[in-house]
Amino acid sequence: MAKLGVNIDHVATIRQARGGVEPDPVAAAAIAELAGADGITIHLREDRRHIQDRDLNLLRQTVKTKLNLEMAATDEMINIALKVKPDMCTLVPEKRQELTTEGGLEVRANLASVKQAVERLQDGGLIVSLFVDPDPDQVKAADKAGADYIEIHTGAYAEARDWKSEDEELEKIENSIRLAAKLGLGINAGHGLNYTNIKRIEAIGGIEEYNIGHSIISRAVLVGLDRAVRDMVELINP
Ligand code: PXP
């Protein structure tokens, strides 16, 4: 049975919009776990646009399932990960101006440096996953880099706007799953997955854990709004 890791970055995005203390991603993580999440994922970005160091430190103490830290393979982030010790580190590319992670990690072209980052984290006892496009060259490079897991970037599949390109992207994902399984890599997947497009991916099988954020937080805002408004109406007009 596939597992669900809930990415709570955008709870922090809402908090940062006001720079205050709510909503607190630590509370969101606890609710997600109570609802059945198998893990909590956060991305501590270099610019700290949503998740803060405080969140990482508190979540390390409070998460009862598994804490997956998405991070760039920089010295700063590697040192933080070695200190905080999340249950998994997922290395992602990071560009300052991007709205969200745009592509998979370019492992093949940067094999030596990625391998070094993987080794530093593993030497500290950490499990390392590499976020890669569903491309056989990148999957093979992830294996050569010594990764424990890959996370297959499902963004192109999620963004496909017609059946033909969706089928093509799905085939790439399926081939990458087969290849990674043959190489003995653990296989996660994520990015852009939602309540509709998850079905065709899950039908392939072979994915251990999905990391899903934006669509879950978006749904939470809509399904929670009715209750939130009713509560305020009740306070104003008891
Ligand atoms: N996996 C990785 C590596 C990501 O960078 C992200 C986005 O932070 C996700 C999964 C979750 O993507 P989404 O928010 O589109 O569900």
Keywords:
alpha/beta, eight-stranded parallel β-barrel, 238 residues, binds pyridoxine-5'-phosphate
Provide a descriptive summary of the structure in words.
Helix 2 runs parallel beside helix 3 and helix 6 packs parallel to helix 8. The protein is an alpha/beta fold and 238 residues long. Strand 3, helix 4 and strand 4 form a beta-alpha-beta unit. The model has no long low-confidence stretch (mean pLDDT 96). Strands 1-2-3-4-5-6-7-8 form an 8-stranded parallel barrel, surrounded by 7 helices. The protein has 10 helices and 8 strands. The protein is globular. It has one domain: TIM Barrel, CATH 3.20.20. Bound molecules: pyridoxine-5'-phosphate. The site of pyridoxine-5'-phosphate has 19 residues, from strand 8 and helix 10.
